[in-house]
Design a protein that fits this description.
Blueprint lengths: L1 H10 L6 H12 L2 H14 L9 H28 L10 H27 L2 H5 L1
Length: 127
Amino acid sequence: MRQDDDAALASGTTSDGWFTRLRRSLLARLGNTGLVLGTLFFAASLTPSLTPRITVAQAVLSGMCLAAGYGLGVLLRWLWGYLELPLPGPAGQPRRRRIAVVACAVIAALALWRSSSTSSSTPCARG
């Protein structure tokens, strides 16, 4: 059975659907450092501001912040490898990925929840 699975993976004909294969392929390429920094930049973009923004402008700003944070995280990870500093082994990679994804989901959910509750009170603060 194991040989059949290996042959199916090598030929690209697994029983998984195309969406599952695409999701696994894309998630395998994301870096944990970029995910965490991107999420922190996204959360920072949702902090209260006295400058009123329409929804589309806020969405574009948040997306740009997420992309900038992810790019900075990837750059830092590349620099870490370039300087030949020790990297964690591949043995714990799935566990570190799960922790990073859960942490990012919690941070993003809290940031979105806080931004929705403070957006209605900001006009009152401005008078």
